[in-house]
Amino acid sequence: MSSKSHPFCPARPGDSRSPCPALNALANHGYLPHDGKNITIMMLVHAMKTVYNLSTFLAFFLAIVGAIFCGNGLSLNLHDLALHDRIEHDASLTHADALPGDKYAPIDVDQSLVSDLLDSSPGGDLTLEDLARVRVRRDKSAVVPLDGVHAEISRGECALVLNVFGDEKGMVPKRELRQWFGEERIPDGWRGPKETVGIRNTFAKSKEVRQEVARLTKHA
Questions:
Q1: Which are the contacts of 216, defined by CB distance < 8 A and separation ≥ 6?
Q2: In this structure, which topology does domain 21-95+104-218 adopt according to CATH?
Q3: In this predicted model, what pLDDT tens digit does every residue of 194-204 receive, in sequence order?
Q4: Torsional class of 32: left (φ above 0), alpha (ψ -120 to 50), beta (otherwise)
Q5: Dist CA 80 CA 106 (whole Å)
Q6: Distance CA 27, CA 30 (A)
């Protein structure tokens, strides 16, 4: 995916970026306009299908929701997705919370949170339980608890990580997450998920994350 035709090029001054590592990585590799501006729904759909092997339905769903809630309905700048409490939410896995009264959330990666995520397991991989454990810690850190919608979004984000980067045993290599979360780049040598990531398997995985979060919270 990070081939010679799509080399990694980090954001330059004036480029638009979001709190979403998936979209920032697409822009940093040129699958989306590198400046992150005036991105249409069709651009988003094509890039997400090409790199992350999302189904057409799921790619359209995510793109349309982003454009409607954060953009102008047809397109967006990546930084529009930082609008606080639209799709973005507090207690992110790898970004600091928005300060009280701020319209936009931080877009810079919080490397201490990335380290906390990767250190949640002693081995070289993360599992669903590891991600759920970090999700519980981040939920507890929130000054104001996430509402139902944003809590569901946060679990859906974990589900997408598992479905996009996980192997057949559900193991997610830390090396890949370190580059994707920490550097917002497509991991070196990564070839994408073998199976299409669709709405059904994403909802199913999100349900597993929700159940594991509930179990860990109960026994905390």
A1: 129, 132, 133, 136
A2: Chloroperoxidase (1.10.489)
A3: 999 999 999 99
A4: beta
A5: 12
A6: 5
Q: Which residue has the tokens 């409607």?
A: 68
pTM value? Answer: 0.96
Which tokens go with 6? 């799509």
pLDDT attached to residue 2? 57
Looking at every residue in the chain, the average pLDDT score rounds to 97
Alpha helices in the chain (DSSP H): 21-28, 41-52, 56-70, 111-118, 128-141, 148-165, 174-183, 199-218
> CA-CA distances (angstroms) from residue 142 to 59, 90, 137?
29, 7, 9
Amino acid sitting at position 134? V
Closest by CA position to 159, among listed 217, 191, 204:
204
d(CA 40, CA 53): 19
pLDDT tens string 142-195: 999 999 999 999 999 999 999 999 999 999 999 999 999 999 999 999 999 999
Residue with tokens 């509930």: 214
